Amino acid sequence: MLGVLVRSFAQDQNGNVAITLALSIIPCIFLTGMALDFTSATQKRVILNAAADAAALAAVTPTMMGQSNANAITAATNMFNATASTVTAITGVTPTVAVANSNGGLTRTVTVSYTAQSTNSFPNVLGLLTGTPQASWAISGSSQSTSTSAPNINFYLLLDNSPSMNIAATTAGINTMVSNTSAQGGCAFACHESNPAGENPPLGNPHGEDNYTLAKNLGVVTRIENMASATQSLMTTASTTEASNNAAYEMAIYTFNGSGTTQVQTLTSNLTTAANAASTIDVLEVYDNNWLTSTNDNNDTDTDFDSAMSQINNIMPTPGTGASSSTPQQVLFIVSDGVEDDNTGSCSEPLDGTRCQAPFDTTWCTTVKNRGTRIAVLYTAYLPLPTNSWYNSWIAPFQSSITTNMQSCASTGLYFAITTDGDISSAMQALFEQAVATARLTQ
What we know:
Layout: H1 2-11, H2 14-58, H3 69-84, E1 90-102, E2 107-119, H4 123-130, E3 136-148, E4 153-160, H5 171-179, E5 192-193, H6 211-218, H7 223-245, E6 249-257, E7 260-268, H8 271-278, E8 285-286, E9 291-293, E10 296-297, H9 305-315, E11 329-336, E12 339-342, E13 356-359, H10 363-370, E14 374-380, H11 389-395, H12 399-409, E15 415-418, H13 424-437
Parallel strand pairs: 4-6, 4-11, 5-8, 11-14, 14-15
Antiparallel strand pairs: 1-2, 2-3, 6-7, 9-10, 12-13
């Protein structure tokens, strides 16, 4: 009977289930506790990673790009801590913010990394493996962000206001001027003379006015008038662009003729002031033909590009990178018809031993560019006048070289040319926008 009972007990399967269940409870508890703590740590890591992302971005916002690295580090740290403080059951949160600058300080790369300890709900479970209760689970992460800011730029406008620039701006205007100046053989230029009656022969206009006044009376718009209004419009474009780029642009305006440069507006960040100053731009007034004043017979040498470039080169400071921690970049903006008329004797065949008409010498352009200043050139094409004997004798021989010289004066990508009937305002704005768009690539 005893033997039967023993055999029956040995063959009973119900006991095995109980033993197996009892033995499996231990790893199940272990795995469940570990899974809960791991899931909790993972969730906290996701939140802290998002905090690191936000912190890295906070240091490279358009506003922050204009501030110092120290301020950027503070902004990133504060952003991270603001989120990290909302995470419960976590200790030892340590953020580290590293900032690197490149591209002359215009590009900033920010790396935010952190370490932390996620408090475990089942410290003794993990302790079964190590022999020591594990109070926390180590977590870490990092994020990186890079941004390049638009540089601050000072623009120096050097505008040709010599008599040759005051030609009628359109074909229709040129025809009107020619048809109303028959005594001069037909002249398309609105030259400004304080003593038009002193001409020999007199200017021959109905009321004895100079061509400048004649053009106004006839309603003929001249190239210089368009240049003045275009310069005013440019200030509006510059104001809008600096706001969208979160950059600072300053403007200085100078005209030039045979007497070098004349300051129209000193360097200013007030672009409204610069626009108002631009409205005063006008052609050089002379006494009469060949005479600058009643006592100065300068033989009409009214365009001295070399002197103008020498003077503006001394006015412009050494350019920086344009970053907030540096001085602004410098851009020289030249508008001219590209023909020099002075008494430097730089021509191979001077007109009378002293007077020289020739394409601009680009030597000074090279000097300015070698300093790191970029040059933007708007060439208002010198109008061929094949019916004019003076043009045929002295200008026509080098007409084809004017464009070449003006283009070589300009920095890469910063050359624009317009002809008669061309829109100076659109051309100036396009050239300005190109100068701004390529600025960060030049340092």
